[in-house]
């Protein structure tokens, strides 16, 4: 049971090595079970690969009918796996886009967010910090990043505290999940896809311009 469904070697990104599905198959496992989401990056699903005769036996079990994936899940999984076959997973599958993003690129993006706020007379800092990869796949693993940091003084323009402003960002559409570290509210570009930046910045500046909810 591999759980994470990693098809790529995570050590190439400076992370601990997560056993891959390919390694399990090559090592002779009769049956390997893993997730269709998590590090594989597709829809939530469970996948079983292995010996043909054993898989055939599993498929005949009555529970197989109750637990089978629907057509939408199969279509999403098929589309995801095609990215791996074409060698484009690092540029098209969100989890790998985020893990593979170089710190220099993240710094540049955070600086552009800072400039966006500065154009509206709002101050923010660039903060060297760590991105947490995720408990289910790589618990305790982190990657370096450069985040946009909002201080109490910046949030005071609309009467917000760090906690109330973070709550306001989560409650809107699109929802923005920030974290509070060392008395600053941090927004991590590693967790924001480039195509979502405009919507994120629009929400951020709109929320800063609104009076805080009592």
Summarize this structure as a short list of keywords or feature phrases.
6 strands, alpha+beta, four-stranded antiparallel sheet, 10 helices, elongated, two-stranded antiparallel ribbon, 42% helix, 214 residues
Describe this structure in words.
The protein has 214 residues and is an alpha+beta fold. It is built from ten helices and six strands; from the N terminus they run H-E-E-H-H-H-H-H-H-E-E-H-H-E-E-H. A four-stranded antiparallel sheet has the order 3-4-6-5. The protein has a two-stranded antiparallel ribbon with strand order 1-2. It starts with 20 loop residues before the first helix and ends in a 5-residue tail after the last helix. The mean pLDDT is 93.
Task: Offer a concise description of the structure.
With 214 residues, the protein is α+β, with helices and mostly antiparallel strands.
Topology, pairings included?
Layout: H1 21-26, E1 31-35, E2 46-50, H2 52-59, H3 62-67, H4 71-85, H5 89-92, H6 94-100, H7 103-118, E3 125-134, E4 138-150, H8 152-155, H9 162-171, E5 179-181, E6 184-187, H10 197-209
Antiparallel strand pairs: 1-2, 3-4, 4-6, 5-6
Report the helical percentage.
Answer: 40-55%
Described by the principal axes of the CA atoms, the overall outline is elongated
Number of helices: 10
- What would you report as the Rg, rounded to the nearest angstrom? 21 Å
